[in-house]
Please model this.
Amino acid sequence: MFTPSTIPYITQFYPLGNTPAVSLTRGLPQDIDADILLLGCGDVRNILFTAYSERGFPPRKLDITCCDVETAIIARNILLFTLLIDGISADSAWDIYFNLRINEDLKKLIQDQAQKIISLSSSIDQWSEGRYGSVLRFCDSISLQQVRQTWARYASPQKAEPAFEEDLERAQKLERTIDGQPKGQRSLILTGLRSMAPLYLASKLESKEGVLEAREVFWKHGNFSRQSGMIPNPLFSETLSPNTFIHYGTDPILGFHLATALANLAPASPLRPTKDDNEMLNVIRAAKTQFHEWVAAFQEILANRISLRFTVSDALSFCHGLLVVSTSENTSTNLFRRQLDVTAIEFDPTSYTGTNAAPTRFDVIDTSNLADHLGALNLLVATTPLLKTLASSTLWIETLLKFEKTRMQQFDALLRGHGPTLSLLLGLSPVDFWTNATSVSCVDELVMNSLFSSTQRQQAHSRLAWKLDKCFSQQPKGSVPLGVEPHALARAVFQVYTQVFDNEDPTNVLKATREEAAENIRRHGYPLFHRGSFATLLKHVRTNTSTDWPSFWEQLLRMIDQDDQNKTTLRNLYRQDLGAQLHLHGLYTEQWLRENVSSKPSMGGFYAWRNIPEVACVTVVVPRKQIDNLYSTDLSKINAPTLEGVLRSSNPFGWQNMFASVHVAFGQVETRGNREADDFSIAVRQDPLGWQGKSPLIASFYVPSGALQVEPRDAKVGLSIQNTAMNIATFRHMQPAMTVYMTALSDTSNVFITKYEPGMSGYPFANTTRHREASSSGSPSDAPRTTQITANFEDNKIKSLCGHVDFSSSQRAKKLLTDRAMIELRQSSPFSIEIVFGKKVLVCPISFPTPVLQETAKTRIARTSGYIEVIAPLADPLTSEPLSSFIYPVVLGDDSIPVPLNSQQVNIDSLPILDVDQAHKKDNNWLNTLTAHQFSVRERRLRDRSEASLRVNFKESLFTMFMLASGLQGGNTGLFALQHPKDGNQILIFIRAIRLNGAEGSVVADAAAMPLTRHLIDSGELETFLYVLRELEICAITVNDEELVLWKKVLPALAERCRTWSHGPQCEYKKPGATIPLSTEMGKQFMCSCGNGVLPEGFMSLPEWDDVAAKHAVRVAISPTFSVPFVEDIVDMDLLNTQGGPESLQLDKCRNCNATEGKNGGKLLKCSRCKEVMYCSYDCQRKDWKKHRMECVPFDAA
Model:
């Protein structure tokens, strides 16, 4: 297994998601087919919402692979999908899928449907050829068998009401134990309020309380109907047991976008909650309204447009299994699918071989919040090789747990090291980190966390997009790998090594205060890494970098051995484990692994093998009574132990080695062959009763064969608990040794030594490295070419990159060098620096895999040898000028289709419309709070000092648009002109409506943009329309040269976000040499014309609009643009707490400095002209007038 063996006595069942649904295709261009991988897929909300989000877009095929470690999750999802295929109503689907208790008719429907799909699933071939097989597919036959067993329990449910009530009470008791609440009192799970975003910022409390009340009603009645006489729903009851509890936070409505329950929506708005006299709470009506629409959309998309594939597996094992099947013809992986399960991942040969094979590389990989449980680094290593090498391909890492004080610290903590350095070594780019711009708001989340006095109760819900760095940076095909000096790489990797195994240093606990110790337990309660996962990381680094590998291994292992001399840490106990794992992964075989192995036939058994491998598998049978003792206390049933293999001397004071990569399962060992023969093997007959049975626990782990020969008969082998702070606090009854079970190597009844793990026919990591594509740039052979990009380290962090360009094959370049032509550097993009000879006589670009800074770059020019090196420091997302306009970048992908790199697609017609009538002005003031938080804490300081900043100016323009379009400040208009001080109006923007975007916790302006190109103006077509606009209330937003260029870069991305049209063969982007934008020159066309005029009928109620203007306008989706919390602070929490907490957000504030009272302690002053905007002093009003005058409408006129 790829993470330490943490084996819980109590498993929490998560049947329903607790974060708002997102569209799985949100990062993809609309008209390309999508292969999607869902890891920890959970419930169906994201699939259904994706179908809803696809409505009206150009049709495409979706192939979605769903992986979850819990069989019941997959079983209930498939049963629901079969019912939807059969045309079940959304009301019945809701009750069946979400309600803990249902009526007799629905129970019978579940039983009949379960029996029906059982009859269609005796084999994977029968299922594939049956009614549902064209849409719902299985990746492997074992998953089908296991799911079928769960369906059988649905078909013949055994659990009656009293037993089900006991199950629910167990879950609630666990909640009380964890939160320290007395019986009869439930803790408030306020994090569920994130589903209200962005309306959590609203002043109304009714619907916020409604979210909390809905959960109470659900747990009290088992549904929202409050009807009596209901019975247990088999989709819940048949999964629960004394070892499987439903998670106490389970709540059906949290996966929906509940802002519609609180917002004032326009009468004709989509998703306006349907009136239902049976539902007392508006949040429930809102959730059910959305579910109805999502189900309808899914049923529409079924016809040949969607395939859903399912597997029951640990996410990391499944990813590594996909890598095996994608790099070989073998569909067997020799990987256990999960803990407590002896079956291996074996893909269905019919599906995963041949020309129409199931996908093994993906456009989208979504990992839910598995990073909290499996480790972000482990996930990145496992999933990166599965990404398609396209600019549109995205890997999503999501986290909920908060371990660091700030989100910025959280980013480095995710990777266990310096974020930009680790990203480069992994061949990845954290997209949002480098753009520091997103349409996704975390304001509600941050404000909500301020309600918790304890940081342990806080969460930090974040989604971070990753792309392959060569795709994100648009490096040419065949670009060279990152070169790294071996000693520098070894030092950087060693630092990661000490970080991931920091929990093995007990001095951190001994030196800690009580508060620090408690935090250490919370942070390192469950270790996420072992030497096998570290070796997997190194294997991935090796595929992405170039160095002197023998020298690297020598230096890295020397550092680790020096660290082992430090007897205050426990890391030295895992040195043999590290050697074994490096060998198993095919990375490096140390000499001692070979030298310490010799055949000893006289000793029999393993020692008599003719060819003893460097590494062998040890399997230990742990008697059941030892397991019962391990979990004999209440605390041990809640806090799961991390189990490790042990091999130690018979001398109590002798040597000892620990092995953390352990697989366990309940069952009986069955031997195959002779112990003295090389092919001796074992299998485990699994006990289907598991925890409820009486079978022993079978534990298997790899060890160096030489270690088994030190004391071949008397050495002790067994299972122990890892010495973490949590384990020490929990398993006091196992101290001091923390040994679960120990026996002699010679105990043939309980110890088995084999070449491979039980039931396996080979090592699990063979041939799983994707080969690098051939190094061919496509340039003429005599063209200058970048032959090496080298990383330069300082303090174990990559600080700069050196690009080496070889001119020796270019006669023209060699002559220019020899003639001592002037050479200068010019930055053409955040990733590219051009070497310019003379007055552009020759221009040679160097493409770097990450943003760099030309301004402080250095050059080495070898005129005789014919090469130039450019040493460029890594850019800073906060201060580097090349990144200031890198907000919503768009690149041209295959077939010249525009690919937005970080702007998320929205189906704008499906979003709820906010009612901005002046009657709702006070209620809509949350929009002021939301859009004001576009400005980070740093940017607010810049505003206060009136310091010029491109991004601040851009956000000021956005803020003005939203305030005027909503009528919250300075009148109410949807007409805007981006006006250049010298050249006049350049772009017209028409905002039709402001819509809620619950998936992003924000809003979006449904708008059209009309570039006023010279050609269009000279044509005279708009003369009458422009004359009409002069008579209307239009807001002119003054933009300087720099901001105008930024708008020309951003608007193409905003058009791509919501396009419902396709780029035709005459698209301007498809012309040779085209870029996005097409041009940034004044008056030139900067967007393609494919979307011009593709607008809903009557988009704007303006004279001449339909007949004249609309055909020159393109629809755009404009959202507030926020900074990224991994880069800088968004909400000033100290200021918020000083001003009185979240409630202060609704107070009137100074428009310039956010003060809530006048400078002398009195009331704020209103602008005497518009009577709307408030200031703390005349000084602040004067500073803000440059911005406010564009929107200030005299009170009498308004």
